[in-house]
Structure formats: C-alpha cells, structure tokens
Amino acid sequence: APIQAPDLSKCGPPNIDSVIIPINCCPPISSTIVDYKLPPVPNKLRVRPAAHLVTDDYVAKYNKAVSLMKALPEDDPRRFMKQAHVHCAYCNGAFDQVGYTDLELQVHFSWLFFPLHRWYVYFYERILGKLIDDPTFALPFWNFDTPLGMQIPAMFTDKNSSIYNKLRNPNHQPPTVMDLNWSGTDSTTTNNDELIAANLKTMYRQVVAVKKANLFLGEAYRAGDASSPGQGSVEGVPHTVIHKWSGDPNQPNGEDMGNFYPSGRDSLFYSLHANVEKLWTIWTGLGGTRKNPTDTDWLDAAFLFYDENKQLVRVKVGDCLDEKKMGYTFQEVAIPWHETLP
Ligand code: C2O
Q1: Residues identified as active-site
Q2: pTM above the 0.90 mark?
Q3: Spacing, Cα 117 to ligand 1 middle (Å)
Q4: Ligand 1 pocket, 91 CB below 6 A?
Q5: Cα(217)–Cα(156) distance, integer angstroms
Q6: Which positions does UniProt annotate for Cu cation B binding (predicted)?
Q7: CB of 265 closer than 6 angstroms to any ligand 1 atom
C-alpha cells in the first residue's frame, strides 16, 4: 500500500543530533484537509528562470516576495520560518508513518525524494506569487549543471536582501566554482576548467547513464516499510553534495544548507531544488527505459502542505509528474553534459 499523508495531530519533536536550541517544527493543525486538485493550466505558464541569468527587476521582485513572507504573522503557515519547518518535519522524523508508530516517516533516501520536494517548492512558489499578487511569479533555478551556474548565484550574496543568509561556507562564495564531487575538503586545483569538466562528467554519470527508475528516483518505499530503503543517483550527487558544500562548516551541523532541519531557512534551498527537479524532467525526457514507475504505491503516496490560501491540502505523487500540468516550466537553457561521456 502507498505511504499515507502524515497525521499532523501526532507530530512530535524532530530528531536532530546536536542542536543547541530545541525546535518544534510541527505544522499547525487544521480541521479541514482538502484533496488537492491541480488548478486549470493557465494560458501563460510560470517560467522559472536560471538564477545566474535574471534581471535586476526580477531580483527585486523575488526579494519583495520573500520579505513579505518573512513578515507574515507568527501563526501563518505560509510564513518563511514555517515553510522552512516543512522540511524539518518531513525529514527529521517529526512524523510517524500513519498506522506504524514504530516507523518514522522519512522522505529522503527513497522514491519519495523527487515528488515530495517538487510539491514543497510548488506551494512555496505559489505562496510567493500570491503575496506579490503575481500569478506568473516563478522561482529561479540554480543552474549548477552549466559552467556559469556552478557557483552560488550572485543574487543570494547581497547582504541587504531578504534572500541572503549568513550561515554559508565562507570559502565557497562566488566566484568559487563548486565541486560536484566535494566530500568535505576543497580541492587544491586552481584550474576551474578541470573542475568544470569533472562536474559535467559527473552530471552525465548521474543522469544520462542511469537507466532504471529505482536507481534514478530511489528505491520503493511503501506503507509499513522501514524508512530509507535507498536513494537515487541525483539525490546523493549532486544534490546532497551541494547542500554540504553550501552550509557553514563552523556550525555544529553545517547549518543551514548542510543539514535537513534548517536547510529550508536558506533561499538557496528552493533554487537548488528547482534545478534538481528539472533534472528529473530531463531524465524522463531522455527516453528508453528511463520512465517513472506506474506502481500505485508510488502514484498514490500522499503528503500534506498548506497552499497559498492557507488551506491544508493533501497531494499525491501521481499529480506531480508533469510540471507543465502544474502550471510552470523552465527557461530553456543548453544542457552541456548530455553527451559528456565519463
Ligand atoms: Cu530534503 Cu535538498 O533536501
């Protein structure tokens, strides 16, 4: 059977190793849960731009939206910090699996990884659009798979902006080129071309060369299964690598980006995920055996989110397989690793 949406009334404290101030990341409870229906596809899709290519006007608009989100009342589930807590709740064991009090619900390390994050970013984007009254607003994607995108996008480093975050690795500020194979120590090469070439090979290996759904999306995770059956290729590399590379190594858990519970507090998170899910779209588009599962235990797996109108909604994996049906798409950019043989 599919994993069911969590019971919010049974949410508990998250498991976090060495957190200094204990946190409660449970979402507010609501008396009504609506089964979410995708709104009709608009005539004009939201078009997510590549973060390194945006205009100043766009940056100003995005900043405005995030400032408004940060200024919402404490108890508004759309508030910036409450949105960040969504990740903590789903990823640090605040929920049990419905019907199995001895099993925690964990959305990483399984086939729930891509769908959960896509839905999360979807509502986050719609909330921002609603706050600035712009139904075409779309989040920027961190185009880390193209040479000019392989660094923290400049818009996030302006200290006076609402999308700045100080808990980031001070040695990885732009124009430092990221290493998609980073494992805790900075490479000694000063040759950016070498690093970029290695990154492109990594992209090929993690996306194009992966031909089976369980290896790309992660292993099956059904009701009653122990959590974390196995992660897909992209979840590990480059996704988790970029999290760790971005977080501040001087914090106890690599806060913010380097750990589950606080990563949603850094606006980089949503742009990282906007590109990670774009890789999912690219992967299914490659064809051959690269297909989404048709198993109803995946398609009917469900999550809860608050939508842009503060309504608690239940969404299903099967409704997030095509972003155009969800009302958005991505700016067209070249994919420089399609044919980079490892
Ligand atoms: Cu839930 Cu980027 O992780």
Answers
A1: 87, 108, 117, 239, 243, 260, 273
A2: yes
A3: 7
A4: yes
A5: 29
A6: 239, 243, 273
A7: no
Would you say the CB of residue 84 lies under 6 angstroms from ligand 1? Answer: no
Q: Is the ipTM of this complex over 0.95?
A: yes
239 is in an annotated binding site: yes
Q: Which atom of ligand 1 sits closest to the CA of residue 269?
A: 2
CATH number at residue 172: 1.10.1280.10
List C-alpha distances in Å: 30 to 5, 25, 306, 311, 335. Answer: 14, 15, 10, 8, 43
- Range 146-152 average pLDDT: 98
Question: Does residue 145 fall inside a structural domain?
Answer: yes
Cα of 257 from ligand 1 centre, angstroms: 9
Report the candidate in 50, 58, 119 with the shortest Cα–Cα distance to residue 90: 119
Token pair of 282 as six digits: 């690219």
Residue 52 annotated as binding? no
Q: Is residue 80 part of a domain?
A: yes
User: For residue 132, is it within any domain?
Assistant: yes
Does residue 336 fall inside a structural domain? no
pLDDT digits (tens, 9 = 90+) for 249-267: 999 999 999 999 999 999 9
Domain span including residue 149? 8-330
60 band by pLDDT with thresholds 50, 70 and 90: very high
Contact 25, 92 (CB under 8 A): yes
